């Protein structure tokens, strides 16, 4: 089966319902789609802290399946990892447009620049977990910076 085949559920999720097929910069489009997804989730409910880990597990599974179907490993159309990463970032920030803009910028900065340990993960961990884990770390770094700015400074 050729990747992506949007009739395959794992491929549909891996491309975040086709967003990963947008060009240029599919990772940026995936990040934006994740931000919009989070914006419309009810933020006040404590169950969001159950949904986020479950979404990360689902993303790992989907990245594994997409990676197996792709001949290029971390195929550029796989953007569920960016969605998961920006959701991690947004879990730390207030529900304001300014915070969301800053979250988008910082997450993309860390995801593209890949400072250590993100670069180490990107180069040394392969498969679905490798596709996902560097974005989760980038999301955590961006979220920690924004959390510090909004709540401690």
From TrEMBL:
It is an enzyme of class 3 (hydrolase). InterPro entries: PgpA, PgpA-like_sf, YutG/PgpA. One of its GO terms (cellular component) is plasma membrane. It catalyses: a 1,2-diacyl-sn-glycero-3-phospho-(1'-sn-glycero-3'-phosphate) + H2O = a 1,2-diacyl-sn-glycero-3-phospho-(1'-sn-glycerol) + phosphate. Keywords: Cell inner membrane, Cell membrane, Hydrolase, Lipid degradation, Lipid metabolism, Magnesium, Membrane, Metal-binding, Phospholipid degradation, Phospholipid metabolism, Transmembrane, Transmembrane helix. The chain crosses the membrane at residues 12-41, 47-63, 83-107, 127-152. Coiled coil: none annotated. The keyword rRNA-binding does not apply. It is a multi-pass membrane protein. Residues 13-149 form the YutG/PgpA domain. It is found in: Cell inner membrane. GO terms for molecular function: metal ion binding; phosphatidylglycerophosphatase activity. Lipid phosphatase which dephosphorylates phosphatidylglycerophosphate (PGP) to phosphatidylglycerol (PG). This is Phosphatidylglycerophosphatase A. It comes from SAR86 cluster bacterium BACL1 MAG-120820-bin45.
